[in-house]
Amino acid sequence: MPEIVFGSRVRKSPYFNATMAAGVTAFTIYNQMYMPVSYGDPLGEYERVKTGVSMWDVAAERQVEIIGPDATVVAQLVSARRLTDLKVGRARYAPMCDYRGCLINDPIALRLAEDRWWLSIADSDMLHWVAGVAGTGGYDVDVFEPDVSPLAIQGPRADDVCRILFGDELVDSLGFFHHRAVELDGVPLVICRSGWSRQGGVELFLTDGSLGQALWDRVAEAGAPFGIAPGTPHQMERIENGLLSYGSDTDADTDPIEAGLGDFINLDGDFDFIGKQALIVRHADPATRRRLVNVTLDGEMPAPQHPWEARIDGTSVGEVRTATYSPKLDRNVGLALVPVACAEAGTQIDVDADGATLTATVMDVPFGTSL
Amino acid sequence: MPEIVFGSRVRKSPYFNATMAAGVTAFTIYNQMYMPVSYGDPLGEYERVKTGVSMWDVAAERQVEIIGPDATVVAQLVSARRLTDLKVGRARYAPMCDYRGCLINDPIALRLAEDRWWLSIADSDMLHWVAGVAGTGGYDVDVFEPDVSPLAIQGPRADDVCRILFGDELVDSLGFFHHRAVELDGVPLVICRSGWSRQGGVELFLTDGSLGQALWDRVAEAGAPFGIAPGTPHQMERIENGLLSYGSDTDADTDPIEAGLGDFINLDGDFDFIGKQALIVRHADPATRRRLVNVTLDGEMPAPQHPWEARIDGTSVGEVRTATYSPKLDRNVGLALVPVACAEAGTQIDVDADGATLTATVMDVPFGTSL
């Protein structure tokens, strides 16, 4: 496999040196930052996050900060889900659409103060999008990327680690998607009960990038009794549990309803957001649209490096966007983006996987639910 | 060095398989697309582009297409340089600013028709920026990323290759930054006399991504008599010749004047663009601003993977953003972003290069000129 090159155009995370010392074997680039994607033992890392506790450098999950008198107006304008009623100290998963109604990111929005928000983004440059909308619309806000770098602690033993780090009172009072600013031995951070797995845990939003090594070491030390080790967001775990990977599962023309996020947008709300009208038009006849579905994959599956064309009776019906071996089901599974007419459970689809022919079968578990 | 991982979140170029077959050894990710950055022989690749001819997969230089009745209005609004007088069939280097007056990209703008533009972008997501500005401003345009993937032919023998591919008439009539739509054995493309080197050549903007291998093979075949081989945009060549690398040489707060692009923006024009007023305010007192300067670097230089802090008398004065060995000068050189007061030729700066201490000396050649 070719190397990744390190240069100053792409940023290093505050945890970069720590991850290198811990033996990271592969990176991707995400929001113009190097992000670890493997420490060389996919099944071991899967087991650890499912049964123990894992620590992840997810600093590449950058924040778009919106602050000022119009901050909530702008945050709502760019979010397809109601945010105006979100309390300070809470977070909400809030997909973003462009003017065509297509999904352009699916961040978690954190309300830090009445007039201060973070959008904790997936891999697309929402800083420019929000700044372009806010500037052109004449809104009274500042939009910028703050010095904030999440470190995730994920897995069923995450709370044990957090009790040592932050004490029982904090852990017991921190509900799902609640967040709070704390200091850990002089390291400032916002702790949020969130993270890109379904195994529980928190994200520590470090707010001083010069202290990455200190935070990493502190977490590693507190987690040692519970067998903590470095890991990364995990393809097997997230596909088994219906977590969307924006840009991986979706293409440039996917809208949130197609992506299975219909429950996380408010088309019928009494407020406007960018893309709302376009979405209503797109789904005036739902039968004409697509759906992201779970599929099983039978046949000799090569390593999935890119979407594969899906066909029924020789006619293209979209793509298997991504695929993986599922330890839980002990078989290969994937996510296919296909017309609604082909989305029914049991539908069989031919997949051209780089020369190998696979048979995909639509599962009866809708995307978003655990397999 | 860690591997790069291949997955469907990041796109493969239409030339991806060809570059793998040709032995690419390292990739980066640029505009959410894998981009080759080395075939394992930096000095050989440097020599080839300086004295012969090289072919580069630069499909990651994506296009933002702006089309419709307000296309020229929008193209001008997002560009700090006059575009309204650009003829169809011509291109112009046109830096882009945000509302703070900071550089957010430095594309070449190609005018394809009166009301149709491509912004051929560096590594930041200008599709969302332009779409956000156009949509919020209510302009009558479509903004999208077309199926366009540049393949560059660069070097003093590039014209010889193009004569075989396209004939003498086209080569002789194609002036610098001129472009023309042509078909090459059924492969549709726009040829433009441009490219990210100072060694001459063209970029072939392939307009059907399914034909990447065909175009690659055709160029390789025509170039064989001239010793063509795969290469990549080259750090040594571009620093020796004052070509800006957006995001590498600049930080999030760099404006185009600081970046040495003052000649490529129109602050005194009779038209408005985003960031113009902010830029005027920023440079009301130029002494308070920074400047990107060429420096020589003395001392044992480690591989430059990220910006290094620059100091004078122990006080931080900015950063050496990037550095390289220069074969032409047979010494190490770099680009430093420092206060104007420290930008005078001969100024000596201490550089903390990952533990090694280097001495940077500001050169008398301003950035933008060949060393």
Could you describe the 3D structure shown?
The structure is a homodimer of 371-residue chains. By secondary structure, chain A is of the alpha+beta class. Chain A has three domains: 16-61 and 148-238, Probable tRNA modification gtpase trme, domain 1 (Gyrase A, domain 2), CATH 3.30.1360; 63-144, 2-Layer Sandwich (Alpha-Beta Plaits), CATH 3.30.70.1400; 286-371, Elongation Factor Tu (Ef-tu), domain 3, CATH 2.40.30. The first copy, chain A, is built from nine helices and 22 strands. The first copy, chain A, has a six-stranded mixed β-sheet. A six-stranded antiparallel barrel of chain A has the order 17-20-19-18-21-22. In chain A, helix 5 (158-166) crosses helix 7. Chain A is globular. The two termini of chain A are 31 Å apart. The relative contact order of chain A is 0.14. At the A-B interface, strand 1, strand 2 and helix 4 of A face strand 1, strand 2 and helix 4 of B.
How do the strands and helices of this protein lay out in sequence?
Two copies of one chain form a homodimer.
Chain A lengths: L2 E2 L11 H6 L4 E5 L2 E6 L3 H10 L2 E4 L5 E5 L3 H7 L13 E3 L2 E2 L5 E3 L2 E6 L2 E5 L5 H12 L4 E3 L4 E6 L3 H9 L1 H6 L5 E6 L2 E6 L8 E6 L5 H12 L5 E3 L3 H6 L35 H7 L7 E9 L9 E5 L2 E12 L4 E9 L8 E6 L2 E11 L5
Parallel strand pairs in A: 4-16
Antiparallel strand pairs in A: 2-3, 4-12, 5-10, 5-11, 6-9, 7-8, 9-10, 12-15, 13-14, 14-15, 17-20, 17-22, 18-19, 18-21, 19-20, 21-22
Helix pairs in contact in A: 5-7
